[in-house]
């Protein structure tokens, strides 16, 4: 782990006006710099107050003129978020106040923090492992309740503990093998083959179960890709707006208004969704609309859930029925009869009832989506998300490292069954340990950590 010799500063609250804005400092000069820019009310200086105590006073510029009346607190490393000395100034959330305050901190000796640098320092100083640090980014980007809960669980160490248990079991295998090989004269019980195979089999199973969580992790991060499809004027854009709770897509009575796919995220029925409003599916000679139709079909092919919309106020046709059958071959599908607030037209309902597909009636005009919410919840049950909060892999880097560990353990079992020498088996176990070390950051390259933290916002 590296030791940082400079002090960084940044605004740690979102841009724009707000009730409170926070200026954050970390590094060996954090407290002295805060003392230069903050004057407590009363006779005590900042360091005469206890760490982690909020102190009331004035934020000063380079000329010692008051910028704002604020609260200041400091922490001493290693008992801080970054493991270094830290200070925070809680100001009124004026962008100008924060800009002037940050300018004063720079003038006093701090430099601008890079994106994710506070959390990177927490990792480098051993306050967080890499899985926990990535969870900070996931928590910042969480778009659903379940996504936030899983990120919080991972930040609390749920995934790290699971990895640590697998790592520890493999270290025991190596340690025992090395003891038997290196000290043949000592009275050390060698592993029985069936015992060793059982130990490796257990860890292979643990890694296999961990890899099986990748799909859930991706859905939590990105949302279930939900394609909203149907013929022109079936109510696709109206439904999208109703599901979002605001007018995202243009809605008119003119067929072909939506020419391209429109994507937005929401949570419905407890399920994180990535909604994709598509162009109406029909034969057309318009080259622009034809491109939209092609993108609509591609969205169907890539979807994890398809909502097939049919206007209930008009007779359903063969094209509607064919589209529903096509969708059911591609992904879980829900038939949505739209415009439920209008008188229903005569339609071949029995024909649709013959298809084993959930069907609901909605009215986007009055936001009557209860039936649809229930069906989406049934398609993606709550226990898919809520089981073992934080014990899932949430990105491609984690999946790739876990897969290499699993493959190495499988090779070790194969070597054991083939009667190969212990050193061949130990090579595979070492590879598994190295891959697991990449998950938590015990053996990760610097360029990988730089790439991970570059996605963070400045000030975190």
Biggest beta sheet summary: 7 strands, mixed
Low-confidence stretches: 254-259
> What structural category characterises the helix and strand content?
alpha/beta
Task: Note the quaternary state here.
Answer: single chain
Please provide the ordered H/E string of secondary-structure elements. Answer: EEHEEEEHEHHHHHHEHEEHEHEHEHHHHH
Termini Cα gap:
19 Å
Strand order of the largest sheet: 3-4-5-6-2-1-7
Shape: flat
Q: Percent helix among the residues?
A: 40-55%
Overall pLDDT, averaged? 82
Beta-strand proportion? 15-25%
Total DSSP E strands: 13
What would you report as the Rg, rounded to the nearest angstrom?
29 Å
- How many individual helices? 17
Q: What does this entry show, briefly?
A:
The chain has 17 helices and 13 strands. The longest helix has 25 residues, at 158-182. It has helices at 30-37, 95-107, 117-124, 130-141, 145-155, 158-182, 193-211, 214-222, 236-244, 287-302, 318-330, 349-353, 370-379, 383-386, 396-417, 422-440, 446-453, and strands at residues 8-11, 18-26, 38-40, 55-60, 66-75, 86-93, 111-112, 224-230, 262-268, 271-277, 305-311, 333-338, 359-361.
